[in-house]
Amino acid sequence: MEYQTELLIPIFGILAGIIIPVAAFTYVYYEGKGKREAVLEISKNLEDPTKVEELLRIFEERKKEPVDYRRSGVITIFVGVGLYLLSFLAIGRILEGVGALVSFCGIGTMIAGYLYPNTGKELTDAVEEFEKK
User: Fold this and answer.
1) Is pTM, for the whole model, over 0.70?
2) Which of 13, 33, 62 is the last residue of a domain?
3) Does residue 52 share a domain with residue 28?
4) pLDDT tens digits along 69-84
5) Could you tell me the residue range of the domain that residue 107 belongs to?
6) Phi first, then psi: what are they for 112, rounded to 5°?
7) Distance between CA 95 and CA 3 in Å, rounded?
8) Can you list the positions of beta strands (E) in 44-93?
């Protein structure tokens, strides 16, 4: 009986590694399927192509703004600090290294946000400053 229990844990671990991504992709597919069908039905009844483009813009969920690496860097830094403090106070020394690693990744992300401007105004300012030189 003990042998069967020891064998079940790795099997469930392997199955979880397969089932979770398949379930996630299936969920995303079926979530977007209804939206795609609705756009198709509405576009069949519209004669003006500009209205179809406007409809597609309404259903588009992605943001037009680029990712702000400074903001995500600060968030990552504090997640790392939280992991470090949690492990320092309660768990043990192993997670202290993980917390420090996450914090340093956040610092790198934040530095990248300052080195590579991403908003339109920042890019325009950087180009104008370069042209002055």
Assistant:
1) no
2) 62
3) yes
4) 778 888 888 888 888 8
5) 65-133
6) -60, -35
7) 32
8) none
Mean pLDDT of the chain: 76
How many folded domains does the chain comprise? Answer: 2
CA dihedral in degrees (41, 44, 49, 55; nearest 10)?
Answer: -10
57 with 43, same domain: the answer is yes
Single-letter code of the amino acid located at 65: E
With CA atoms as reference, report the closest residue to 109 among 68, 67, 51, 69: 69
Residue 92, phi-psi category: left (phi > 0), alpha (psi -120 to 50), beta (remainder) = left
- If asked whether residues 119 and 80 sit together in one domain, one would say yes
* Burial degree of 118 (CB within 10 A; 0-12, 13-18, 19+): middle
Domain match, 23 and 74 both: no
